[in-house]
Specification:
Two copies of one chain form a homodimer. By secondary structure, chain A is an alpha/beta fold. The first copy, chain A, has 14 helices and 20 strands. Chain A has two domains: 3-261, Carbamate kinase, CATH 3.40.1160.10; 266-426, VC0802-like (2-Layer Sandwich), CATH 3.30.2130.10. Chains A and B meet through helix 1, helix 2, helix 3 and helix 4 of A and helix 1, helix 2, helix 3 and helix 4 of B.
């Protein structure tokens, strides 16, 4: 017997037929004697419909009223799932954000989860009732509905799992787990059975879209075991322990699994790519103390997330080229801010390039293995792929390359680190 | 300066364009220096969509979860109207049922309004903020969402008006007032400028569909001045006192208006028709004490609303025919219940007729004028219309006739009581 939080995304609950399929999966978990809470998204397309209404009503919308409108999508799904479970003979009820309550702070439309006082809900779960919680929504200190930003239902699920001290938080989605890389690029990509929070965070932040970064860091903080799995599997089969998803666990648990031989020791766990970055080069920046701070301080203040900073020595003495990347969506704003301050900063030109891609190799194994970066550079050089910038963390090496070479680079690296699945035909 | 509650139905808020029109009407009232609360329905069609989801999820739905799902329609409209008003520079916020709170009791899906503790909302209104309240919804003692049954938004509006001690409750709808009779039948029907609660109640209960009966009786109980008017009038014109709707007021206020000569003294105020009744005849019922109670007791227990009971003396001594009407939707159930108990009741046959119509003339003037019923019977007899049953109250006379003669009877009576508008061509 375990206490489990299950989360289903928008495509899994798009319509009453799919909600019935979800209810079957939930029922199977409850029938196994588990205490179950379910977090649901709005039906696919519904949030877009509601957001459009808000835009039509008021392009500069008040986020508090926006929250009133858009939170209704999850409310509907929660009620319908409770009704469907009841039709199957299960005891179930919905718990809206303000009923649990899921207290939030900070801004409307982008609220952060605070305290979740779930005592009443836990008591109901202990009494055998399935709890259904609309994701994405909470309640502010002054008793108004809040929402957590698009995709916030993953975060809701992890927060609820932490609050009810769940043994596991299962995130059901339209893919069946986390892969060593994008299977659309590498046919031999393998599903990862176990991955550490830190690795998942690095992968999520560089373009593996399976889970929201915020939900993974919250799971790490509260040590919630996360599982990613598909809601489109055969609904008659799932038993708690044989679900064929990806389990995301703490470094400590990962260590135990390695010791027990349940996990194969890998240096690199996964390879991610991200085409949503742009490269900016400032030429002939005066090479004096504080110059770099003067460039990046204002960008940071404007909420622009600068990554991969490199300083090249320039042709002339006392001058340097500064290269960095920013999110593609912030490129125009970045360029305008730099041009405005050109005189003050004293550089010569701004050169930008949006046709770049960031390729990252991620793995806890790097902590104890040298030569991971060298392998990467060699493998890319062997195929003539030029590296424009490099950044590293304890468990990640990222390089910036020409966007056109993205797929080639991912395939080359997937092979170089021994991640390819065995040839089935062999 | 006045405190006004305005209510807009589903067709008035069907889409963001129509909500903008509503916002213009609301703004005009607020700009006149009035304190304004607005009660809104769900967009036309939305509640049906949500009810269908519930039926698909669980044909025998749990009304508590049904309420979670269907209440979302009004929530969306409330948020959108607040956003639209804000886009016009008005201060506005939504107050959901659980936020006001609108406390309710009795059953989910058919809740009754209890206390409305509106102190915080009133303070906001006094501060110049327009309050937007989703109709139809409230909150139960144990903090769950409730709804008041279809069409409950009128009742919400009157309850809110009573709670905030409004000077007036304006019900905006797709017709521009209450008429002396159905204008689709009588081209010369006139809009009634003032009508008493009691008269409106009788008209509403016999088929004039402008207002919910429950909302009128609540307005009478709390002495809330009600006005019915159209939201499809020119939005630039409405000033508080020249709105061309129908005002529904207390008998006392009506008396004053009569004394001041502001209202013309009429014996009959309006004529209603209702085709949703069916006639039932039980032949040769034993004429003994308690026989009638044995017939109607069980029907009442089953929630069947029996109307217009007549006992005819039968052909044989000691026997009688009993005629009565029931709502058409209960006819099959009534017939089955009677056949089941045929032996016990001792009657000979059940004869039913669903092709009947009830025609009612209503007017406070009947209290002081004799001969109203006689005028009715004579006018109908002159045109060869056969009266099958009669029932009367202090301010109403109803007759049951052949359904095919409905329009003829309404026209004849409208003329007979001098209600026809003057001939404009004359």
């Amino acid at each position: 017997m375990a206490r489990i939080v299950m989360k289903f995304g928008g495509t899994s609950v798009a319509g009453t037929e799919r909600i019935r399929r979800v209810a079957n999966i939930v029922r199977a978990q409850a029938a196994g004697g588990n205490q179950v809470a379910v977090v649901v998204s709005a039906m696919a397309g519904e949030t877009d419909r509601l957001v459009n209404f808000c835009r039509e009503a008021n392009p500069l919308f008040d986020p508090a009223e926006y929250d009133v409108v858009v939170s209704s999508g999850e409310q509907v799904t929660a009620g319908l799932l409770a009704l469907t479970l009841q039709s199957m003979g299960c005891r179930a009820r919905s718990w809206l954000g303000w009923q649990v309550p899921v207290k939030t702070f900070a801004n409307h439309a982008n609220a952060r989860v605070g305290d979740i006082e779930a005592a009443e809900m836990i008591a109901a779960m202990e009494g055998g009732q399935i709890a259904i919680i609309p994701g994405f929504q909470g309640v502010s200190d002054d008793g108004r509905i809040t929402t957590m930003g698009r995709g916030g239902s993953d975060t809701s699920a992890v927060a609820v799992a932490a609050a009810v001290e769940a043994d596991r938080c299962d995130i059901y989605t339209d893919v069946d787990g986390v892969y060593t890389t994008d299977p659309r690029i590498v046919a031999r990509a393998r599903k990862i059975k176990h991955i550490a929070f830190e690795e998942m965070l690095e992968l999520a932040s560089v373009g593996a879209k399976v889970l929201q970064t915020r939900s993974v860091s919250m799971a790490m903080k509260y040590n919630v075991r996360l599982q990613v799995l598909s809601s489109f599997v055969d609904e008659s089969s799932p038993s708690a322990d044989t679900l064929p998803g990806t389990m995301i666990v703490s470094e400590e648990e990962m260590g135990k699994l390695l010791e027990d031989g349940q996990v194969e020791r890998q240096v690199v766990t996964g390879i991610a790519h991200d085409k949503n970055e742009a490269r900016v080069v400032l030429t002939r920046v005066p090479d004096k103390p504080g110059a770099v701070a003067e460039i990046f301080g204002p960008l940071g203040d404007a909420g622009i997330n600068v990554d991969m900073i490199i300083q090249n020595v320039g042709r002339d003495k006392g001058e340097t080229d500064v290269t960095f990347t920013v999110p593609l969506s912030d490129l125009a704003r970045t360029q305008a801010m730099l041009e405005d301050r050109k005189e003050k900063l004293g550089f010569n030109r701004v050169i930008t390039d949006s046709k770049v891609a960031k390729i990252s190799v991620v793995g806890m194994g790097m902590k104890s293995h040298a030569g991971v970066a060298a392998t990467m550079f060699q493998a890319l050089a062997d195929r003539g792929i030029n590296v424009q910038a490099i950044s590293t963390s304890e468990i990640k090496v990222s390089v910036l390359i020409d966007e056109d070479e993205t797929e080639l680079a991912v395939r080359v690296l997937h092979t170089a680190y021994g991640l390819d699945a065995p040839d089935e035909a062999a």
